[in-house]
Amino acid sequence: MSTLPIERPQGATERLRKAVSMGTLAEMKANREPIAMVTAYDHPSACVADAAGVEMILVGDSAAMVVLGHDSTVPITMDEMIMLASAVRRGAKNPLIVGDMPFGSYEASNELAVANAQRFIKEAGCDAIKLEGGGTSAERAAAIVSAGIPVVGHIGLTPQTATALGGYRAQGRTADAAKQVLADAMRLDAAGCFAVVVECVPAAVTELIAERIAAITIGIGAGLATDGQVLVYHDLLGMRDGRDAKFVRRYAELYEEAVNAVSSWGDDVKHGVYPGPEHMYAIEPGELAGLSQTLSS
Ligand code: KIV
């Protein structure tokens, strides 16, 4: 396999540095230096995130949809998440890696939650875990924190329970609903979460949350008041066909590029122009003559 030299934008080169710790993130929050978190699900995406210099990687359960082709995040299992998170760990040296607890892996009891959180740390080498929701999830978060594992909360649109929330839509758009989202944020903060993801919440409501909690806030579709932003790798790279959520900005069109590249290769195969001479191995003429002689005798 040949490797092309990577041309990095100036900013990314500046950001290539030592391993990111929770202390680094706290310092960034204190200095109002925005934190970049991206999802990754395998070795290549982890290498890209690492080389790009982001501070945090989320091995999101969105893998169920963008990698495994399910209609929701619900079906992905702990074993599948551990396999993906392990590959990410092998590819990313510097970013702080967060493993996303899948649906069914933490809700039933504190014991179940702690045991599965430990798997992310022990088997996959993650630095922290994330779980969704604010009610009993805050209790689970506190139990996991007590077991010595850093926890990221997730409020607003929580995809694992999207059906109960009325579908994939913004949350906290009425005074009562916003109060509920704020209450969830405060519960997770009190439970000891070091960070909270705020998803699909009006920017003005996010501002009220960010003012009131000590945890690092990471937004997705939640405006600019958070300490950082997260996006799904496949969304920001345009690796998917179809419509994006309102908050997505594509920084590349890799799906289209990949289709064009594979299609050009297929055409070359069909026209006999791939492989070219430069892709073939040679044998010394003397060796070939010897072989022919052996075969004909
Ligand atoms: O699973 C995921 O990718 C997420 C992000 C959308 C925050 O939870």
Calculate the terminal CA-CA distance, rounded to whole Å.
39 Å
Cofactors and ligands present? 3-methyl-2-oxobutanoic acid
Query: What is the count of β-strands?
Result: 8
Helix share, percent = 40-55%
Uncertain parts? none
Count of helical segments? 12
What integer is the average pLDDT? 94
Main beta sheet: 8 strands, parallel, barrel
Q: What string, H for helix and E for strand, traces the elements in order?
A: HHEHEHHEHEHEHEHEEHHH
Provide the structure class.
Answer: alpha/beta
Percent in strands: 5-15%
Q: So what's the overall shape? A: elongated
Give me the side-by-side strand order of the main sheet.
1-2-3-4-5-6-7-8
Tell me the radius of gyration: 23 Å
Which secondary structure elements does this structure contain, and how are they paired or packed?
Elements: H1 10-15, H2 22-30, E1 35-39, H3 43-52, E2 56-59, H4 63-66, H5 78-91, E3 96-100, H6 110-122, E4 128-130, H7 136-146, E5 151-156, H8 175-190, E6 195-199, H9 203-212, E7 216-220, E8 228-231, H10 233-236, H11 254-270, H12 285-296
Parallel strand pairs: 1-2, 1-8, 2-3, 3-4, 4-5, 5-6, 6-7, 7-8
Bound molecules: 3-methyl-2-oxobutanoic acid.
